[in-house]
Amino acid sequence: MYNSTRCETITATAKHAILKGLADDGGLFVLPNLAEIKIDLEDFVNLDYNEIAKLIFSKLLDDFSAEEIDECIKDAYTNTFDNNELAPVKKVGNMFVLELFHGPTSAFKDVALTMLPQLMSKSLANAGKKALILTATSGDTGKAAMNGFADVDSTAICVYYPHNGVSAVQHMQMATQKGNNVDVFAVEGNFDDAQRGVKQLFVDEELNDYAKSKGVELSSANSINIGRLMPQIIYYFSSYATLVKNGDIKAGDKAIYSVPTGNFGDVLAGYYAHLMGLPVEKFIVASNKNDVLDEFIKTGTYDANREFYKTISPSMDILVSSNLERLLYYATDRNTEKVAGWMQELKENGKYTIDGVTKEAITNLFLSGSTNEEATKQTIANVYKETGYVLDTHSAVSYAFAKEYADAGKTVITLSTASPYKFPQAVMSALGEDIDDEWEALSRLQSINKDACPAALACLKDAEILHNKVIAKEEMRDTVRAAIDKLANL
Length: 490
Ligand SMILES: *Cc1c(COP(=O)(O)O)cnc(C)c1O
Prior knowledge:
Layout: E1 2-4, E2 7-12, H1 14-20, E3 29-30, H2 41-44, H3 49-60, H4 66-77, E4 89-92, E5 95-99, H5 109-113, H6 116-127, E6 130-136, H7 140-149, E7 155-162, H8 168-175, E8 182-187, H9 191-202, H10 205-213, E9 216-219, H11 226-245, E10 255-260, H12 265-275, E11 280-287, H13 292-299, E12 301-303, H14 324-331, H15 336-349, E13 351-353, H16 356-363, E14 366-370, H17 373-387, H18 395-407, E15 412-416, H19 424-430, H20 438-448, H21 455-458, E16 469-471, H22 476-489
Parallel strand pairs: 5-15, 6-7, 6-9, 7-8, 8-16, 10-11, 10-15, 11-14
Antiparallel strand pairs: 1-2, 1-3, 4-5, 12-13
Helix pairs in contact: 1-6, 3-4, 3-11, 4-6, 11-12, 17-18, 17-19, 19-20
Pyridoxal-5'-phosphate (PLP) binds at residues 107-109, 140, 223, 260-266, 315-316, 394, 417-418.
């Protein structure tokens, strides 16, 4: 059974937790006995990705049958990733780069957002319900969610993005999405308007009642959902197994993982793998100029009262890192009272300070760093010059911090969370060429990068546009009503 990070008597099965997302007290769902679920080295180092997925899911998803887990893995991961390779590891200089961007939208959120809809669909079938997913996006998550939910049973999705507020590539990725149950709207205003609009829809009682009367729940694909967290644990095990198979390390050797971090979901999944027995020396929490996590790990004080910077690594731009709450739960040895207290302080004052024992538990395992835009660009340029490998603007952040440990002879795996082709202008600018037109930058990057552009991005410019609705914020509600009616009849 899962329970809330803020109260151990608020419990849920895996299916229940996946459908709810958040616990009733606002806490996040966690497995209290996670550290007792040990995965032995000899049990996973010879397995392939899907076999590891099966092993991990069978331990973590308590009320899923073996058949359900098999179906989810098959439906999520068959023919969705380039060459059916979900998480290849490449040697770049003296480091290992774990590439997580070979999915349908060329970014790491695909790993989880191809799986979550499958897990959700099974949970819905069990409960005899349907779910309409509502998502506001600044560009990336929306497409990955649309793609993941497209034509998945018992679900539909509506995505809202700021009109003229996303890049040309992001716009085309969303506008060309196929699927009988997907809809996307450009909302007049900025991202905050779209996000506030979606939040209002979730608390709109009349709308929720209307949905319920049609057998539909309004739901989100938020990164705090355990259905998004669990799939991310797998590539920590699989990357380690790859190094053992290739003879780069011996089973039992410890590795350092460096992770470009925003909402703390990715690095938390690594911590979960470690609790389950993966040999890890350290995790490096790598942040961009938004350095709230770096400061927290160094000082023990989390202070969200600070300036928010828009950077060239936008998916890491964050003030409140939601999944950190789960680390606090385990680092306090499951002290829900302490966690609830800190989260209350965060809500009231925007800050909290943890005690010395908890801080030590965290710093024993976690290192941190934050970098600025110039340094990120410099890393992209240096790595290209030295190795010919092109990093994207997020992956360069973790690479920068990992290098010193690789140079000292450690085994370092740095996570690469997006294809450089997703951010071609910023990447080309780092390589010394400022190009105004995004498509032109993409084609220029193709000509200098030995790694090919993912097919979905390469042919995007001329793909057929399927969605072109621009709406006012006040019209969002009507679009949801229409989507509810349509889903009820699917
Ligand atoms: C979401 C995202 C991240 C940050 O991951 P978290 O799990 O939020 O810490 C890093 N890089 C890219 C490209 C992302 O999309």
